[in-house]
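Structure, all two chains, one model.
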Amino acid sequence: MTARPLPKFTDDVLLSVQHLSTEFRTDDGVVPAVDDVTFDIRRGEVFAVVGESGSGKSVTAMSILGLVPSPPGQITGGQIMWKGHDLVQASPAEMRAIRGKEIAMIFQDPMSALNPVHTIGEQIGEVTRIHEGLRKGAARTRAIDVLSMVGIPQPERRVDDYPHEFSGGMRQRAMIAMAIACEPDLLIADEPTTALDVTVQAQVLDVLLEIKDRINSAIMLITHDLGVVAGTADRVMVMYAGTSVEFGTVDELFYHSRHPYTLGLLASLPRLDDDSRTRLVPIPGQPPSLLRRPPGCPFHPRCAYAQTPSPCATDAPVMRLVDHLDHRSSCHFAEQLVARPEHSR
Amino acid sequence: MSAETTVGAAPSAASGPEANAPILRAEHLVKEFAIRGGSMMRTVNKVQAVSDVSFDLARGETLGVVGESGCGKSTTGRMLLDLLHPTSGTVSFEGSPIAELSGRDLRRVRQRLQIVFQDPYSSLNPRMTVAATLSEPLRVHGQWNSDGPERIAALLDLVGLSPEHARRYPHEFSGGQRQRVGIARAIALEPSVVVLDEPVSALDVSIQAGIVNLLSELQERLGLSYVFIAHDLSVVRHIADRVAVMYLGKIVEIGSRDEVYGSPSHPYTQALLSAVPVPDPGKERTRRRIVLEGDVPSPIDPPSGCRFRTRCPKAEAICADEEPALIDRGTGHPTACHFAEVEVVL
């Protein structure tokens, strides 16, 4: 594989999410799964959303696609602007017309996202038959085309296979094929390679990036793997406890992070390219339960930089610009943070 | 035994005449599973999950066993404790083959060989308090007496939990805390060897580091030897002294941590290392990545000769005809490849 070129940006904003809040009402109380999250995704870019389990990254994606189960879930505030329309206000029929055609989703686990009783070709064909009114024969031809685009060998033959006849990596390729069948403008990939082995992960990420350029779309890549982010993303949003804590280009985030949580994540990672035995620096404590999210900055109980007396425990921080290049952080002390030496290895 | 046993042994924790003898030795381990099918569930085929795996574990060292799903690393780990009986081959603990032991001798060895499982959600009994979970091994091995509660408190302290945690149930804990309970259970009987089967892969990134540090601390304090089974090559580089790389049931390369990561000689190891993304955008942009074709073949019908040849960029005719032995081919450590040569990929 050749080295990836430096990220290039366009100002062509595809999706603009403003102050999105999504809640789940449970027997134990209201869970603010996504709380006042703002970002935009531009054509041609890979926009990564990083966070640990429960940080709200998947619910953000579900909110964009109108797939938040209601009840118990509900979008309680904000806008999701897509081609001049607010998807929060869109009717179910309008969302059905957009999903799969303009915005498509690639799920983590292809075994549960594919229907075991239909062939791969039928499932890919269903998308084009519904959205583009293709006949059976034309839909099958398109399915063969997209299977070959994602690198399935002998697509004319494999199109009639059932999901169980595919290996894990091939199933994930089939999922990608299904998502790109209508050449969507935005591909949302939720942990697309987490279930795959590392040599297969490399293949699938290559396919994903190649396809993005070929159909001139954007990718919203949801992942917990900072290595995958470093290797594929142009811009990154870091989420913690339902809020977005930092936002910037991939280089700004990895080399000049302005948020203690991002710095903490980077310091806690054992690195393949590090042959020293320096002790890892874990982030103390646990991610909070969203039912009992700490007041003020949700990260303050675990934060190495939190000060007392301070606004950290009392005032909820607001995302603000901390640098040129659209680098934003929600830390009260963002300007004072200096990366410790181990962050700049 | 074969050449791979002497490579890069770690400094031993014990002293005396037996200090240099391996604490655990696996020789020619093979595990076959029957594939049943048809209306009578007869054996219709066999799959060899592990095919002729040998290695030594020195006192106080950590041997990392890495590979992708289906490579046989977990099956190997289970055979080390005799949780699975090898189809053939032997595991010896301090020189005694485990399969030949019985009664008191076997119980003694079982105390000294323990395991920590991957999933702290399913490896703890939800109906048992932490105290009950930790006292069970002591009771089973007849070590439960009046100072039992104190031992449990000391164990909890050792793994970074507090004595009040003893009364709680697994559901009251986070994943990281549960894994600490799993580790406390494994060290309750003061073992010499702990097999760690993907001990951090179910945990969130910010929690993993604490468990990795805990394992290192315990090793130093208690003189433990670890077999650390993982698919995460970054964690293994951090914790292991020696590393064995497995592919389709076989060890393809084994050596010290610096040999395997710094001068990998098997094309599979090189591809694997080059495929792991590192959290450094600048490096990622300039790194050369060896992308392998296709998927791992089915272990039911493995390729002839070298099992990696179907995906190998170096494969030639000899690879299909002749299985490469795991020997030092001039690269300083054993590599099972006819065309072994060092290639720096990191």
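Chain A touches chain B through 55 residues (CB under 8 Å).
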